[in-house]
Specification:
By secondary structure, the chain is mainly α. The chain has 11 helices and 2 strands; from the N terminus they run αααααααααααββ. It folds into 2 domains: 185 residues, Leucine-rich Repeat Variant (Alpha Horseshoe), CATH 1.25.10; 50 residues, no CATH class. The longest helix has 19 residues.
Length: 267
Amino acid sequence: MRIAALGATLLIAFASCSTTSSAPTDSTYQQPNSLMGGEITRRVEQIPFQHREELLQNLMWLAQAGEQSIPALVGALRNENPKVRSSAAWVLGRLRDRRTIPNLQAAMHDSDPTVKLECARTLVLLGDLAHSPALIEALDSDRKEVRYLCHEALKTATGHDFGYDHLNANKDQMQVSVLRWRQWWSEYTGDPVFAASYQAKHNITITPAAPAGETQPPVDGQQPEPNGTVPNTNGQTVEPVQNPPAGQVVPVPAPMPTPTPRPNGGN
């Protein structure tokens, strides 16, 4: 889990300095007392000046504060500093409160690509698959931590992995796996262009096989629920494992067979 967190920090850290608006009052959520509210606001205001471990620990604290930190985080999605906006989206992704989906959807209009990617990753983890294309496109990113975090979010939400390996040194094999993801989306939406354009651009002549590499194979032909859960043999649902943001905090560790998530944060 450390690598995903770290990966999140690396993306988050692109931002420059700025100020943070105070936490808005929103009676929809549990309200902190004055002491806790002040601490939450202070920690949000510290984000522009933190990096790597310090930033990760601060974001984890905000996540552990739970629902009472949501009003401040929702407000931070509109902060003038993209690092603060991206960090807020990452923490909201860890809180997994679906009431924040409209706020994150509005933040998808952000002009900063890192913020948009982080919001998209969080939305997919919350069950809004409409933003899957942004994550699928990021599977070709030059940054391995971005590839990892985006793939983990897609895998968690859908139960597929299509043989994708974010550390695969064979570019042709990786592109075939990405094409499989694109074909999945084309079949899911009925729009063949998303896959066909990629296949033509990279001159991929071998059509990928049917979906492969389910992380949680459907039982008796059942498909994952829209929110990413998968029915188990008892008819109950298995909640997907939450992964850290795809555009946020962490120093990138040396390539490992099975990386452990952390955020992407500055220097």
